[in-house]
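Saturday, quiet lab. Running sequence design on the structure tokens for the scaffold JK sent over.
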């Protein structure tokens, strides 16, 4: 089982860890900064420093779908560290931060377009959400303006936990129609935008996010595509 440090502090860019297992498939550690690909957000990249060597990490995944474990995928030809070895972890912070900004931006998009979400993807330069939306939105400029109003409002973004039974009793909190929050641990992580009565969004999410909407930066609505009879894909870009 891996201690997921990013759950408590998504801004940690360096940490120490101990190698639990290493092989051709990758490296497992007792603790990690590296987010494992899930929920439309790609796995992190960066470096593992071991014995004076810099070992490139190309990505991270949950092996066999086990969310309690993280497998760090090494770049081709990289020499893996040894089990029991103490190593230093360094994230590709610039890439991670852009993914955090875009992930938070997509949560805002789900606020401005209050439809069921059928799919999504977080990227470094753009992201997208697929909505159960029969017709395309009529005033794209107004949607974009509203998004940037929420960005400029500098709303706090934070995480909290809810019991699985309580979440089951509040199905309106789950915006995704095809992918349900992972259960089995007794608790589900929520991401909240805003505080108290000023909350504009509260939904299950295991991804990494920025601390406030202002940190996202200005946004631009991209192409809106038809992806089925009642499915629309809305692409979102950073404006600069």
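Result came back. Writing it out in full:
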């Amino acid at each position: 089982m891996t201690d997921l440090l990013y759950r408590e502090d998504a801004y940690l860019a360096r940490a120490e860890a101990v190698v639990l297992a290493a092989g051709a498939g990758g490296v497992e550690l007792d603790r990690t900064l590296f987010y494992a690909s899930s929920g439309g957000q790609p796995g992190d990249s960066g470096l593992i420093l071991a014995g004076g060597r810099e070992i490139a990490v190309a990505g991270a995944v949950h092996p066999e779908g086990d969310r309690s474990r993280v497998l760090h995928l090494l770049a081709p030809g990289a020499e893996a560290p040894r089990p029991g070895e103490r190593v230093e972890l360094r994230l590709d912070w610039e890439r991670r931060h852009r993914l955090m900004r875009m992930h938070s931006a997509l949560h805002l998009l789900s606020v401005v377009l209050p439809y069921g979400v059928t799919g999504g993807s977080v990227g470094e330069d753009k992201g997208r959400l697929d909505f159960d939306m029969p017709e395309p939105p009529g005033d794209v400029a107004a949607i974009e303006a509203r998004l940037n109003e929420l960005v400029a409002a500098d709303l706090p973004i934070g995480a909290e936990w809810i019991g699985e039974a309580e979440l089951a009793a509040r199905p309106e909190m789950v915006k995704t129609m095809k992918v349900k929050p992972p259960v089995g641990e007794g608790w589900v992580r929520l991401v909240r935008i805003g505080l108290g009565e000023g909350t504009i969004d509260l939904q299950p999410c295991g991804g990494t996010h920025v601390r406030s909407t202002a940190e996202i930066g200005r946004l631009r609505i991209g192409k809106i595509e038809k992806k089925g009879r009642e499915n629309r894909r809305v692409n979102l870009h950073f404006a600069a």
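Notes for JK: The chain is about 15% helix and 35% strand. The chain has a mean pLDDT of 94. Ask whether to fix the surface positions before the next round.
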